[in-house]
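Tutorial, part two.
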Amino acid sequence: MKTLSMDSVVTARNWVDLVSTRARQLGDRTAYTFLDENGRESDVLTYRELDRRARILTHTLGARFARGDRVLLLYPAGLDYVTAFFGCLYAGLIAVPLYEPARGRAGQIDAVARDCAAAAVLTTREAVLELDSLDSGYSFTALPRVATDTLRGPDDVDPAAAADGSTVAYLQYTSGSTATPKGVIIDHAMALHQSADMAHCWQVGHDDTIVSWLPHFHDFGQVTGILLPVYTGCTAVLMAPSTFVKNPVRWLDAIHTYRGTHSGAPNFALDLCVEKTTPQQRAALDLRSWRALSNGAEPVRKVSLDRFHATFEPSGLRATTLTPGYGLAEATLKVTCGDVRGRRLSERFDRSALGSGKAEPSAADDDGVDLVGLGVTALSTELAIVDPATAFRLPDRRVGEIWVSGPAVSPGYWQRPEDTAQTFGARIDGESTTWLRTGDLGFLYAGELFICGRLKNMMIVNGVNYYLEDIEGTLADGHDELRAGSVLAFGVEKDGQESLVLVAEYRPDSTAEPTALVTAMHELVAERHGIAAGTVVLIAPGTIPRTTSGKLRRQQCRNDFQAGRLSEIYRREGVQTMSETTENENRATEPSGSHSMTELVRLGLIERVRAWIDERPGPGKPVLDLSRSLIDHGFGSIDQIDLHESLETWAGQRFAPELLWESESVAHMVDAIAEALSPATARM
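Running the prediction step on this input gives:
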C-alpha cells in the first residue's frame, strides 16, 4: 500500500499550516466529493479550492469578529460546512459545529449559543430564511449572520496570526438532548494527534478513499469525514445522514463506485443495511476495496457484526474489515480500535459474574453475555480500569470504570471548571497522572478492552446521547403529581437495542389515575427529548432505591426492575398513548362523503401513516392521534426519515422532509403534504 510521507504532517503546528501545505502539495487533487440523495455528485472540492475558499472567508470573518470568538456553524450536510469550518480556523475563530436551523432544534441550538456565548451564526443563504421564521424569543436568532455560500472577495488573504497547538480549534457539543450542554474543548494539537492515531490504526494512505454519511456535528463524523482526509491527503466521499437512512444502499453503492477503503458506522447502520437492501442490490455490489469499517458510537453488538458480514460477504466484504472501537468526544474521538489486519475478538461471559465485577468466560450454550473486544490504544494513549469508589487500579478481568489519558484528551469543558475538575481531573490512588473519567464500565481481557455498561447517567439510541438526569428533570418539572427525588430513568437492552425505562413513586394522595399519569410521563419525555419510553412503572411511595444519605440509586433500581423486585402498582409496556376509543374518535372526525382530490390524498396519507406505524418492529406501537406530533408519538429523527421515504414512495412524488418534522401535529403534517403533492399523480 502506498502511503504519504508524513513529514509535513508531523511538523505542522496547526490545521491552517496543514491545509495550506496540502494545497501546495496536492493542488487539484479531489479532497471532498458530496453526493446527493440519489448518489450523484453534487459538489466537489479540491485541496487548492479548499484553501482558496478558506482564505475568502478569512477576509470577511477576520474583519467582523475577534480572534477567539465562538461562531455557530448551522449547516445542512454538504461542502459549505467543510469550507466554513476551515475558514473559521484560518480566521482564528472557534468553530461550534451544529446542524441546520429548524423549529424542532431551536431550543438545543439556543442552549449551546448561550453556553459558549456565541458571537455569530455561519450558515447558508437558504438557512438564513429558516432563521427568519424562528421564534424571536431564541437569543441565537438575534446574532449576526453570515451566509458563507454568498461571500466573494480576495483569495490571497493570509490567515490570522499563526495558531499553536494549544489554540482552541472547535467546541464539540454532545449530540443528545440536554438542558445543560457541555462543549468539549478541542485544540489544534489534539485534533492533529487524533488524526495521526486514526491514520495509524486504520492504515490510511494518500491513495485511499474515506466514505462517510455520519453527521459533521458528531465527533465521529467530524474526525473521520472532515479532519482525517486532510491529515492523510486522501479523498473523502460524503453524503447526508438522511440519504443513508432513507436508502442504506447508497452508502454501499458509494463504497463500490469510488472504491472506498475506510468508513465508520454505529450498530443501527449495519442493521439497516441488512434489513433494507435487496438481494438484487447486494449482488450488484463489489466491496472488496473496503479495508476498515470502524464500528463505534454506541455499544457494539456481536450479532450486528455477524449479520452484516454474513449478508455482504458474497459482495466481497472481508471479516477483517469490521474493526470495532471505543471512544468519546472528551478524548477527541478514538480511544481504542481493533486491528484492521486481524479477525475481531469476541467472547461469551458469565452474566452473574459480570454483575459481581468479574469477567469470567462461560460455555457457549450457557445464558451468558456475548461481548466484542474493542481493540487497544495507540500513540501514547493510556487506558486504566479503576474502581470508581476507591480510585484503585484494577487488574485484568475485573470490571471498573474506564479512565483515559493521552495527547488527544481534552483539557476540559468550555467555561465549566467544576465539571472539568470532576471529569478530567481524576487520579489513581498512589499515582500522579491526571485521567479522564469516561463514566463507562469495562474490563481488559486477552489484551483488549471490553465494555459492559455505563456508570454515567446517559443512554445511547441510534448514536444519539440521552441524558437521564435531564429526562428525570423533565418529568419532575412537568407534572404536579411527580417530584424530584421520586423519579428515575435508565436504559435496558430490549430486542437488541437500548430501551428507556421510567420509574416513579405513585403518591397515595395522587389525584391522577395511574393510566393518565403514565400516559403523561410518556408524552412529556417524547415531546421534550424525542425518545419513547419502552416501559413506564409506578411503584409504591417510599420504595425507590436510595443511599443512606437519600441519594437515588439508579443502578440498584435498574437491577430491581430486571429482577422483578420493584413494588409495582402499575406498569405499561410500549408507547401506546391513546385508547382504541380515541382512535375511533379520530376516524370519526375525518372527512367523509364527497371529497376533493386534496382531501382524498389527505385520507390516503393518514392511512399510510397508520400502516407505517403497524409495520414498525417491536411491541407497544402507538395508536395514531392526529392531534399530536410525530415526536409526541415517540418517533425520533431516524423514524421520521423512514416515514418520509415511505410517504414519498406511496405518493410517487418528492416533497420536503421539513413538512414532517416541523409540523405541530400529524393532522397539520398530512394537510401540508397533501397541498404539496400533485393529486393527479398520487397513487390512491
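The longest strand covers residues 436-445. In part three we will examine how such features are distributed along the chain.
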